[in-house]
Amino acid sequence: MNPRNEPYAGPVRTCMVCRRRFPKHELTRHIWNGDLTPDVAQILPGRGYYRCAGEACTAKFPKRAAAARKGKGEGKRDEA
Question: PANTHER family, alphabetically (predicted)?
């Protein structure tokens, strides 16, 4: 059940800023390919970062997404 006490129809995703759950089609998906790229069709390969349409989430999203990328290990290989 969602906050509106209605059953979800289809896949559910979580906004990475406010942590609320929404039907996938209500969220904007972005991927990381050197920069945050909106994936309007939601078909691009790669890790998806989802954001709801709330003003606070829109403002905080770039910082949260960058923090999520930090520590993923890309380009940080030990050369021994």
Answer: BLL0784 PROTEIN, YLXR DOMAIN-CONTAINING PROTEIN
In 1-80, alpha helices (H): 55-69
Nearest to 62 by CA among 51, 54, 74, 76: 51
Q: How many CB atoms lie within 10 A of CB 23?
A: 14
29 in helix, strand or coil? Answer: strand
Instruction: Give 36's strand partners.
Output: 32
DSSP element (H, E) containing 64: helix 55-69
Per-residue pLDDT of the chain (80 residues; tens, 9 = 90+): 556 666 657 899 999 999 999 999 999 999 988 888 899 998 999 888 999 999 999 999 988 888 887 755 544 444 44
pTM of the model: 0.71
